[in-house]
Design brief:
2 domains, 4 helices, 68% helix, 0% strand, elongated
Amino acid sequence: MLKCFKIGVTNSQYYHSSESIYMCNWFPYILDLFPIADLFWVMLTLFLASIGILSSQKFGFIFSIISGSALIFLGLLDITFNIQNNVYSNKVSDTFLHLFINIFCMTFGPIFIIFGGLNL
């Protein structure tokens, strides 16, 4: 488990216990970082892949592989973060949402990679 520590976020405090990171008041700031990577890089590569594939260009398949690898990376990063911080053991609705996102990333990432690799 991660311990809470002062990271320079305003109003953050020191915590020296084995409690979940949810107890820290900077936890929402960390969760806000994931959509930036999702929306910027994954959506950009998926958009470029769709343009390339629809116009029968090879770069579309290359960007399909790139977006698949980005989905796998984000899925593994999110799974690791959730396990280390007991996110799966909190509210049932949060657990299902995080599991859906993780299953989506870990399913479609390899599909995009295989699709791009077979069509290059």
